[in-house]
Write a structure and sequence with these properties.
With 334 residues, this protein is an alpha/beta fold. The chain has 2 domains: 124 residues, no CATH class; 132 residues, Rossmann fold, CATH 3.40.50. The chain is globular and about 75 Å long.
Length: 334
């Protein structure tokens, strides 16, 4: 009952904090804690009433390493597919890299476990501490990114910002088109409700692009029926942070006020929402569907970017985790 009580407390705090601001990743921490304590609590009660379930629980624990190997295989296969379809780049090969790392870590863990030496056991505990921390942080990010993108999505706005994602031969790519179509969905619903909504396609000109992304995006929107007077392109930005900042400048220069919704890809919603909050913008973010094969590397890329943006906090937290595990190791090995 204690575990279920903890789950209820975490759930209540999650609801309160989420109502204050949906865009904070700490909501994900509370959501994961709620699920963790709820699963443990229900399992505990079930084992008391049905002792045979203990066999299932033990079997699930023993199959966990198999699950890691299966996940590694999936990521490696996905990485090879990304390489073939999207080309050789660090971002496109992240799933392949993580899959190989998982295999290497699993092999190292097995070797350390079989070593039987004190040094090997200490190294095993250290590796488990680091891997466990990274795994939990990723679960928090992935879980809340999915929840944020799917639950209570905003459908109306006075300003719809669409984030750029690169052009191909100066034209809108399928990935960028999906973002524009998601923005159009919000804009059309808003105008149908009587709002004089405007759209801000946001994206500058990359070194390999013949024109700014915002210009090509604006052409697409007009071709889809948006009046030219309602399209305010932003053509200076080079990254998501600048997309949001420069789009707000365009909005302010045009004297447009009201609710702001940002349209991007589904894997990008969490980081875009966090950046919007850090800039003091009240904007919420909606995500467009992305090709399935593209999602694993894209989510990993977003995770790396979020961790890098808060690297000092994560470094301190990881140092504390390692210190605690080291203390436990000293006690266990003495």
């Amino acid at each position: 009952m204690v575990l279920l009580a903890l789950a209820i407390i975490c759930a209540l705090v999650y609801v309160v904090l989420r109502r204050r601001d949906r865009r904070m990743l700490r909501n994900g921490v509370l959501l994961l804690a709620t699920l963790f304590f709820a699963v443990l609590g229900v399992t505990e009660l079930a084992m008391v009433r049905f002792p045979a379930i203990e066999v299932v629980v033990v079997g699930a624990i023993l199959l966990f390493p198999v699950g890691i190997v299966v996940l590694a295989g999936f990521l490696i296969a996905n990485g090879v597919r990304m390489f073939r379809r999207e080309g050789r780049s660090l971002g496109n090969m992240l799933s392949l890299i993580v899959g190989v790392v998982l295999v290497v870590v699993t092999v190292v863990l097995v070797l350390l476990l079989r070593s039987g030496s004190t040094v090997g056991e200490a190294a095993l505990l250290l590796l488990l501490a680091v891997a466990g921390y990274v795994g939990i942080v990723f679960l928090v990010f992935l879980l809340y990114a999915v929840v944020y993108g799917r639950v209570a999505k905003p459908r109306e706005a006075d300003v719809v910002v669409v984030l750029g994602s690169g052009l191909r031969h100066g034209e809108v790519t399928p990935l960028l088109r999906s973002r524009l179509d998601k923005g159009l969905e919000v804009w059309r619903h808003s105008t149908a409700q009587g709002r004089a909504a405007v759209m801000i396609p946001s994206g500058g000109q990359g070194s390999d692009e013949p024109r700014p992304e915002g210009t090509a995006m604006a052409e697409y929107l007009v071709a889809q029926g948006v009046p030219e007077s309602a399209v305010l392109p932003e053509t200076r930005s080079r990254n998501t942070d600048e997309n949001l900042r420069f789009s707000r400048e365009v909005q302010q220069a045009a004297g447009v006020t009201g609710t702001v919704v940002v349209a991007t890809s589904n894997y990008h919603v969490m980081r875009a929402a966090m950046l919007a909050r850090s800039l003091g913008s009240p904007a919420e973010v909606v995500g467009a569907r992305t090709a399935r094969y593209y999602v694993p590397s894209a989510f990993l890329r977003e995770f790396v970017a979020v961790v890098a943006a808060h690297r000092i906090a994560h470094a301190v937290a990881l140092a504390v985790v390692v210190a605690v595990w080291a203390w436990i190791a000293v006690i266990a090995l003495t």
